[in-house]
Predict the structure.
Amino acid sequence: MIKYTVTSEEFSQLEESQQGLYTQGEDGYKLNVEGVITVEEAAAREAGLRENRDKLLAEKKRIDELKREAEAEAKRQQEEKLKKANDYEQLYNSSEQERQRSEQALRDLESKIQRQQVNGKSLELASSLTKDTARAKLLSEQIASRLTLVDGELKVQDKQGNLTVSTVEELTSSIKAEYPFLVDGLESTGGGAIGSASGTGDSKTVSRADFDAMNAQKRMDYIKSGGKII
């Protein structure tokens, strides 16, 4: 469990990778990575999505039962009077349309749950590579583009979207090698972290809003060139 504030004793018991997420203050150590959700928060969000999915499943089951009842009633009426055939067809079509809408909603919810799991894992891996918020966001986007969920299990895919036999750990190593300027301790200039001094008077700076408005490639090029976010 990630705490937003820890005591000195708690800080000393953390792993080195976790200690890098905190900054010492007067009243202890505070978490300094913004925008990275905790495992508990990700689990809570996923639980909520699963609850909605269960409700949709129950609703679909109810609709299917109503459809069967409607079909049975329509068939009985058709046997009694041929003129009821038209009423049966309309009822059937209406029930079928409702069932299709329910199935589509269920598929959309399952897709949302999958994206939530992929994004959660991507943020976790990115945070282990850098404590810089902007860099973590860029790394997370690159990692997420290479992960997919198959039968409830995270799988690594290549840049063309094809499944591979690579592990998540191997993917992390590949991302580190491909984007060393975004990983703490591997950048060539050392001036990419927020708040660090580059020593030059003409360093490029942009606001947080302008940086977020860039696409992924422009943000990556900006960080790589030594640009700063204010």
The radius of gyration is 26 Å.
